[in-house]
Amino acid sequence: MRLILLGPPGAGKGTQAQRLISKYRIVQLSTGDMLRAAVAAGTPVGLRAKAIMERGELVPDEVVVAIIADRIDQPDAKRGFVLDGFPRTVPQAEALDRLLAERRMTLDGVIELRVDEGILIKRIETRVAEMTARGEKLRADDNPDVLRGRLVAYRAQTAPLTDYYAKKGMLKVVDGMAAIDAVTAAIDRLLSKLGSAKAKSAKAKGKKPAAKAKTKAKAGKAKKAKAGKTSGKKAAKKSGKPRKKRR
Ligand code: AMP
């Protein structure tokens, strides 16, 4: 199973991805998590990404594409994966298409968690206030101003991806404002529909050619027999003699 979860920051992609990976025994590939790990480890990628991430802007496409290319080749991603936070731009989506095609892999679906941005901002304000009251450490980009910036980036650069995948007939939309369990249930329903559609098309692909060949052969025989009869009838009509019965 290979999926993409689309939706603005704070839409709940991470939470739903976690549920998907335990249900389908696949891995979650979150470019945000990978970049944060790179920043913490002080790798060259991390050093390049740190300031960009703190501003809530997007890290250059080639950086995240290279990270993902590397990651999908790891043995634990062989059973499948759910991409969370990637792709985030149309060039990233195009790069992903190429990466998958080179590996003869296909995507099973793209699920958009559709949300109300105003409510998202209110949610993060509440979360920040609660965490601060509890004395918990906040993520550098975990504040309403940065979220606003990230939403702007989302609208400008990531929202066009819904069109990109809709045109390919792959986009499924789920109401991301519903309760977490309801969102999970909606995703489950979509995936079981996708699963049965996939099974049906695999079955059809496996059986139709043989069935068609048989039908064609039958049709051919019937045509010949009919042609024989017709020509016999025609000949009899022409000659005026009654037709001999075939034995
Ligand atoms: P996230 O945890 O997915 O919200 O990502 C946190 C930050 O990492 C984003 O605000 C970006 O700066 C960066 N980032 C994560 N994924 C991508 C991506 N696919 N393309 C560019 N930047 C990304």
Offer a quick outline of the entry.
This protein has 247 residues and is α/β, with parallel strands linked by helices. The protein contains 9 helices and 5 strands, in the order E-H-E-H-H-H-E-H-E-H-H-H-E-H.
Tell the overall outline: globular
Helix tally equals: 9
Q: Can you tell me the CATH architecture? A: 3-Layer(aba) Sandwich
Q: CATH homologous superfamily, by name? A: P-loop containing nucleotide triphosphate hydrolases
Q: Between the first and last Cα atoms, what is the distance in angstroms?
A: 61 Å
Helix content: 55-70%
CATH level-3 fold name: Rossmann fold
> Any low-confidence stretches, pLDDT <50, length ≥5?
209-247
Q: Strand tally, please? A: 5
Largest sheet data: 5 strands, parallel
The proportion of strand residues reads 5-15%
Whole-angstrom Rg: 28 Å
Overall number of domains = 1
Small-molecule binders here are:
adenosine monophosphate
Q: What is the top-level CATH class?
A: Alpha Beta
Mean of pLDDT: 83
Computed structural class: alpha/beta
Q: SSE order in H/E notation? A: EHEHHHEHEHHHEH
